[in-house]
């Protein structure tokens, strides 16, 4: 068993960092398209996506997209190219496991469908939650996990269960043939080769922001001094 936490190496040699930026470009392109913009320069698109233009050009060259000198990139065509690369030109069925605070909020969000992700199944272990209707779906009992995954053709499982339950749920999901997992539980999952796990952890993001806040405020004081003050209580 090996642990993997990235999108894997199946993307025809496109670097992981580029893959991670493609959704950012796509979001910027959607905004431009909504404003009726037909072509965009690499500088404009880079600014909209918050990266530098040399990096953007390099990223897009991996897709075979080089733009036209003096004109830039055709917005709609680039949307198609990136969507195709990310596998968004087809719909993906998603199951959410754990319909507590977080799972319920995710299930109730209507914005995934327009991005190609169909919420198809909701599962929970709590009999008080099983049978609830959320956004047009009925919460099924976790005992039916395998059957639901097969019946609904689930491609991606979102885990919003407590950390203590996450590995066991993950194992069952994987045994049912799902090879993509989005994990919200604060635990590192162990999965076989060929299974991709992405982890979302808002507390890590907050800690990174805290680091930058501290820097803006003049950086950490003397670590030794702070430690002594903390243990002294002074
Ligand atoms: N990644 C983040 O940024 C982030 C933010 C908030 C919460 N979380 C994590 O997300 C998870 C859910 O948080 P929450 O606040 O919604 O918790 P919650 O307690 O409100 O919900 C958890 C749900 O999982 C269900 N559950 C428990 N064991 C199960 C099992 N074996 N099979 C199926 N369902 C099961 C429970 O019945 C409950 O409905 C926790 O692990 C939490 O730490 C992560």
UniProtKB/TrEMBL annotation:
<keyword id="KW-0805">Transcription regulation</keyword>
<dbReference type="InterPro" id="IPR003781">
    <property type="entry name" value="CoA-bd"/>
</dbReference>
<keyword id="KW-0804">Transcription</keyword>
<dbReference type="InterPro" id="IPR058236">
    <property type="entry name" value="Rex_actinobacterial-type"/>
</dbReference>
<feature type="domain" description="CoA-binding">
    <location>
        <begin position="87"/>
        <end position="188"/>
    </location>
</feature>
<dbReference type="Pfam" id="PF02629">
    <property type="entry name" value="CoA_binding"/>
</dbReference>
<dbReference type="InterPro" id="IPR036291">
    <property type="entry name" value="NAD(P)-bd_dom_sf"/>
</dbReference>
<comment type="function">
    <text>Modulates transcription in response to changes in cellular NADH/NAD(+) redox state.</text>
</comment>
<feature type="DNA-binding region" description="H-T-H motif">
    <location>
        <begin position="24"/>
        <end position="63"/>
    </location>
</feature>
<comment type="similarity">
    <text>Belongs to the transcriptional regulatory Rex family.</text>
</comment>
<dbReference type="Pfam" id="PF06971">
    <property type="entry name" value="Put_DNA-bind_N"/>
</dbReference>
<comment type="subunit">
    <text>Homodimer.</text>
</comment>
<keyword id="KW-0678">Repressor</keyword>
<feature type="binding site">
    <location>
        <begin position="98"/>
        <end position="103"/>
    </location>
    <ligand>
        <name>NAD(+)</name>
    </ligand>
</feature>
<protein>
    <recommendedName>
        <fullName>Redox-sensing transcriptional repressor Rex</fullName>
    </recommendedName>
</protein>
<dbReference type="InterPro" id="IPR009718">
    <property type="entry name" value="Rex_DNA-bd_C_dom"/>
</dbReference>
<dbReference type="InterPro" id="IPR036390">
    <property type="entry name" value="WH_DNA-bd_sf"/>
</dbReference>
<keyword id="KW-0238">DNA-binding</keyword>
<dbReference type="InterPro" id="IPR022876">
    <property type="entry name" value="Tscrpt_rep_Rex"/>
</dbReference>
<dbReference type="InterPro" id="IPR036388">
    <property type="entry name" value="WH-like_DNA-bd_sf"/>
</dbReference>
<keyword id="KW-0520">NAD</keyword>
<keyword id="KW-0963">Cytoplasm</keyword>
């Amino acid at each position: 068993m090996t642990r993997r936490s990235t999108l894997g190496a199946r993307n025809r040699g496109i670097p992981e960092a580029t893959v991670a930026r493609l959704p950012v470009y796509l979001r910027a392109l959607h905004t431009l398209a909504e404003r009726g913009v037909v072509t965009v320069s690499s500088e404009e698109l880079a600014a909209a996506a918050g990266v530098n233009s040399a990096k953007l050009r390099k990223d897009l060259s991996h897709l075979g997209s080089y733009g036209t000198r003096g004109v830039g990139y055709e917005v709609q065509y680039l949307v198609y190219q990136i969507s195709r690369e990310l596998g968004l030109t087809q719909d993906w069925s998603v199951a959410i496991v754990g319909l507590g605070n977080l799972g319920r909020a995710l299930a109730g969000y209507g914005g995934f469908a327009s991005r190609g992700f169909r919420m198809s199944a909701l599962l929970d272990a709590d009999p008080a939650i099983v049978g609830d209707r959320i956004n047009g779906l009925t919460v099924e009992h976790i005992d039916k996990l395998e059957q639901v995954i097969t019946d609904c053709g689930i491609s991606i499982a979102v885990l919003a269960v407590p950390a203590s339950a996450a590995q066991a749920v993950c194992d069952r999901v994987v045994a049912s043939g799902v090879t993509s997992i989005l994990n919200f539980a604060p635990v590192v999952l162990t999965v076989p080769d060929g299974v991709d796990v992405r982890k979302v952890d808002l507390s890590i993001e907050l800690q990174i922001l805290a680091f930058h806040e501290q820097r803006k405020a003049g950086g950490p004081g003397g670590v030794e001094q702070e430690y002594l003050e903390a243990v002294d209580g002074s």
